[in-house]
């Protein structure tokens, strides 16, 4: 009898607890998904550590799955068990998650904090709000670094040095995908940035870009992980190579390698949060509370203390200070710094959503020849 | 024993039931018990292996997205044929607008755009753009929706757009399998892909021959080591075995990255060769980011899978056979080739099957050290699973790979005989 009674009581308590949770109570654990490495560390130090200090008893679990986030979220959704609460993805992936109905649509001005001077979130993020589901965090760029000791007396100033194997003989590393490489090829083939995408939409334009890449094909090492180019540069395996600007920052400033930045025609891209669709109420309440804190003006500026990516809010830029460990000013290392952003282009999300499958098939076939 | 026989002559058991029934019952009990004992494993294999693989393979033919999202349009397109070269009539456009309004409501239209974009470039943005504007169309006044839709985007005035929708509206399609062998599904039937997009067959071929090359080099390198292991005194053999197993316990990524450091042009091997004067500084060997890199790194990684079965088979070969052969006048070579080697073949067979099947599905190592010419079909499958999200094509590629492995296994059984494979 006693046992039955006890079980009944426990059941009642559990039900009561579940009800309490549903009443706007915030979950005690939150699963955040990111890229691992230095980037995730910068998020932990700027966002989750201060947030956990404010919320005792909260447990944040990290999952380093951002690279496969879209596929995994789709699989979780099909299995009916989404275990992630907030996911860091690049803008192109956020759009696809939004298209597939896997990410929640955000009402920016009610969900996110306004800037300290009262500017609404929508205005503060401005045109970086590229999707209804995507809360931008940082602006990063894919750009080139070169070995200062291998380029002789005339260090390159233009991205077209990549295609100039006479002036700069040696291997160069490029990403094993068409995005950005096709644009650079056309720009260096004399096409203006305004015409690049019109041209890339045609077979002739695609062939022209591949023909330009063909001129350096034997000198290219193709990378697929962001850590490859920094390693190739550090070992002197390549003379120049493309990668994310934050990776180059750490090669140059933290590892003190003889490498310099070539910001010319860097490709901007955005990285930020999405919240999976249809989260249970208590987890959603937690995530909403977190995301409001983690994307406010000060927090976005704080992240730049740990990694050289530009904050996505206009109001954060003046607050960017010194690197937390190295003590150097971070502003001149931001891809968005006026000195660095004379020639730039933004990842063309709409174009690549349409043409990615087609051009990638051609690009891979060309690589395999 | 008259009481053990029933009136009809059948034999009875001690408790009076017919012996036949009694036997059957005890046999059934035994079978149930055996089934219960293997049930946990059976259910585990079924739930965690057979069902997911089956579900994934089913995606290679499943294609109900178009028919589910645009049911009225698909029905209206029945009577239209793209060969005529004329656009569908107004009812098709009206049906499409009705379907599309429902699809936008259910947020299905962008998914469909992604699906159709695999077949025709530009569908993704066409559906997104049309989805934004579909509600603003005038469906009340009776103004032709055909013109209104073409005004939204002129691609709705292309026969090709409608042909794509019609071609891919079947619920079960061969389209993914055609794509997987560098062909495509068109209104006129199957057709080959344009030459500059053909890559998958080449990758299948490369995967097969490189896996074979890796298996062969594993045999060549592994055989002497397995022989040593089997013939050395126990203490030395144990030490050697640990050396074989040590890399086995090291992370795959660490080993692959180590090869990068060793093999690259500014790497350890090239540096030593240049220092020794065997190479000039300009003539450094290219041993990585190509097929050589993949073969070297994968041979190293898969070697233990070859050595261990060989070793366990060789251990069972009695040394007295060799001595007997030699005492009867065989040379070392004849004794080895005619007496020892045939007995070790089951070990080679087992090792080869293991290594070949593992190699054919390898993905991380070719991705890291393979460059452009050393990647496998599995790298393409990974791309379609995680980047392009074309799971149908990934499933078709996987199904073909599975079929190829099964055929090779069958061929192996016919040629060598699967009974002739031993793990020890």
From TrEMBL, chain A:
Record carries keyword Signal: yes
Keywords: Signal
Superkingdom, natural source: Bacteria
Record-linked Pfam families: SBP_bac_8 (PF13416)
Annotated signal sequence range: 1-22
InterPro entries according to UniProt: SBP
Keyword Signal attributed: yes
Name of protein: Extracellular solute-binding protein
Organism (species): Aliishimia ponticola
TrEMBL record, chain B:
Pfam families: BPD_transp_1
CDD domains the UniProt entry points to: TM_PBP2
Top-level taxon in the UniProt lineage: Bacteria
Lineage, highest ranks first: Bacteria, Pseudomonadati, Pseudomonadota, Alphaproteobacteria, Rhodobacterales
GO terms under biological process: transmembrane transport
Compartment(s): Cell membrane
Organism of origin: Aliishimia ponticola
Bilayer-spanning residue ranges: 34-58, 208-230, 237-254, 295-318, 339-364, 391-412
GO cellular component: plasma membrane
Keyword annotations of the record: Cell membrane, Membrane, Transmembrane, Transmembrane helix, Transport
Name of the protein in its database record: ABC transporter permease
Protein family per UniProt: Belongs to the binding-protein-dependent transport system permease family. CysTW subfamily.
Domain ABC transmembrane type-1, residue spans: 204-412
InterPro entries: MetI-like, MetI-like_sf
Primary residence: membrane
Membrane-topology annotation of the record: Multi-pass membrane protein
Keyword presence, Manganese: no
